[in-house]
Amino acid sequence: MVRCDNPLRGALLLIAAYFCYCAGDVGAKLLNRGLPSIEITWMRFGVNLLLMLPWVVRKPAHLRSTDPTLQSLRALGLVASALFFIWSTRTLGLADATAIIFIAPVFVTALSIPLLHEHVGIRRWSAIAAGLVGMLIIVRPGGNGFQPAAILPVIAAFGSAIGIIITRRMVGRDSVITTMVWAAMIGFAVLSMMVVFDFKPLTPWQIALGVYMGVASSVGQWLLTLSFSFADASLLAPLAYTQILWSASLGMVVFGNLPSLRTCIGGAIIIAGGIYTAYRERLAAT
């Protein structure tokens, strides 16, 4: 991936990536009604791998990475993120699980300082703080709306943050396709060893949903990986909060779950913080 500073393009690519991820999450939640979470995650990575095979056949060089260790760690982070998030949606609503995973930008911003040596100013930290406030309004930890399963999206968020940080580290070293190929290969291999202990036969409808979920997540991963070639990880991190719009909208359309007043207020705070940071950083760059 070749670095080209264009924060606006990076932001738009990231927003589109999170829409694709949320669209895939809808399929995962539907599959949760009859399949183990490990099998659902295995299907997702299996479809990812199948989609990558034509690229590998066309250009076997995509199998070679400049840093196999980092690529493997990135893949494991993505596996953890996908598995624990899908597991959480078995109990939590899609919007609630997505709201909790918003802690990922906090991990990204904190890790980008020692691992990426990025400068994180007060405006970026302010946006992160706003996001946390919005998340707390939605989740109400300690209140009647909190469930023990809420810890699962937090684990997923940390895995996602690891994946994002390593993605940023790999900019200029491996291509987007190579990065995606490695994630698909390692993820599918690890999950294949796990799924044998908890596998259920698939119906044609479940296979169709699995393919849809895998395609949506693959497109999302490609857009997300590409976005970090245009902007810093800590700058893009607050924009992950736009997931709340996608998850709430899709949850309402597919599952008939209307966003609560808390979700609307918290989401407004989250989005305002991200937009403010992007605006200020763009002014500073001019």
Features:
mainly alpha, globular
Any low-confidence stretches, pLDDT <50, length ≥5? none
Strand fraction: under 5%
The helix tally amounts to 12
Number of domains: 1
Secondary structure class reads: mainly alpha
Largest sheet: none
Query: What sequence of helices (H) and strands (E) makes up the elements?
Result: HHHHHHHHHHHH
The global form is: globular
Averaged pLDDT, please? 82
Oligomer: single chain
Helix content: over 70%
The rounded distance between the terminal residues' Cα atoms is 24 Å
Descriptive report:
By secondary structure, the chain is mostly helical. The protein has one domain. Helix content is 74%, strand content 0%. It contains twelve helices and no strands. It has helices spanning 7-31, 37-58, 68-88, 94-100, 104-116, 122-139, 151-169, 176-195, 204-227, 233-236, 243-255, 261-285. It is globular, with a radius of gyration of 18 Å. It starts with 6 loop residues before the first helix and ends with a helix. The model has no long low-confidence stretch (mean pLDDT 82).
